[in-house]
Amino acid sequence: MDPASEAVKGEILEAVKAHVEAGDFDEAARRANELTALGPGETAKFLECAYACDNAGKHEQAVFYYRQVVRADPRCPNAWTNLGLLIQRQGRYDEAIACYTTQLESTPDDPWASHNIGVIHCYRKKDFVTAIPFLERAHRIEPEDVLIHHNLAWTYYKNRDYEKAFCNYREILDLIDQYMEWIKSVYSHTSEIYADFALTCLKLNRRGTAKRAIEMAVKLRPKYRTNWGQKYRRIHERVVSGARG
Hints:
The protein is mainly α.
């Protein structure tokens, strides 16, 4: 290892960071090109910068660094998924889907790339038919992940496949029964699962099950500070009144 070369790389990296912090992304990109031209090992340094900026909430800067990573190493594990998530948070959904799709080309078993494509189609594009295969794929890869399973069950519900939604919510609740304390510690929307299950039960005219589910949701809500909003208040009113969903 040539100490002089390492010193030059260090100087360039610091210059890149300074330009990024100043918001001068064009100049930062130019200096980044100089650094990656010196060797493929420099990709790891950009990845560290991306993680640091992401964790610090500096999302625009993190996007820049992730772009440098995937430009230098398109098959870098998780880089496309992380970039896609940041872009998704900015509301650029088609661009985010393109990132996740690129990730899946090199890593077909990445559950979060599939999951996030499904979430965009469900919640943003309201295209439930397209969303379902992606969420099913993510669930097959991570069958015990509650977030993935919850979004799959809700997408079945929105697609008016209430029986599938009911079965999937039952599976989630069985898992919660086994690992309640652990799941509540890692997933802040446990009460919403019970509320959504209650809504599904109303659609199937299973009022007794809906009542028990919403009672559990109400019990969990104060402790875990779930922001229900009008949607869940309406569910509660329907269950109490005995109205069908």
